[in-house]
Design goal:
Elements (H helix, E strand, L loop, with lengths): L7 E6 L7 H9 L4 E9 L2 E13 L2 H11 L2 E3 L2 E7 L3 H22 L22 H13 L1
Antiparallel strand pairs: 1-3, 1-5, 2-3, 4-5
């Protein structure tokens, strides 16, 4: 049986490039136990920080309190963005869901009875092989007449 993890990883953006792991850990420790802090650096120059980090909190409740208190809050003169970290796959799925939702709303607002230009042939539905129930209902329907 796989044990479910109880920790929550937060995305923290808008950090000063001079911020250290220790300073970030101290900031988030006010809300609960911090398991780890990972400041993201440029892969070509590991000394160059990118201004964001991932903070792993021991409890989800503490992570949510940190989000509530620190998200869109000014720290060191910069607006800090704090949210639950999502994996790349989750981001792609959320983007696809948003696109699908947008396409449904635009299709719903499109005019229903749009006239086709002269000379344009109607699109025929692809042939659908009847299943057994379709055949039975057709047979029974023809018997009643």
């Amino acid at each position: 049986m796989e044990k479910k993890s109880t920790y929550t990883t937060l995305y923290v953006g808008g950090l000063l490039y001079s911020r250290s792991d220790r300073e970030i850990k101290d900031l988030f420790s006010e809300f609960g136990k911090v398991n780890s802090v990972k400041i993201i650096t440029d892969p070509n120059d590991t000394a160059k920080k990118k201004g964001y980090a991932f903070v792993q909190m021991a409890k989800q409740v503490d992570a949510l309190r940190a989000i509530k208190q620190l998200n869109m809050h000014r720290v060191d003169g910069r607006m800090m963005k704090v949210s639950i970290a999502t994996s790349h796959e989750q981001k792609v799925q959320m983007e696809m869901n948003a696109e699908l939702k947008n396409s449904k709303t635009s299709a719903a607002s499109a005019p229903k009875n749009k006239k086709k230009p002269a000379g344009e042939k109607p699109i025929k539905a692809p042939y659908k092989k009847p299943n057994g129930l379709d055949v039975l209902f057709d047979y029974l329907g023809s018997k009643k007449k």
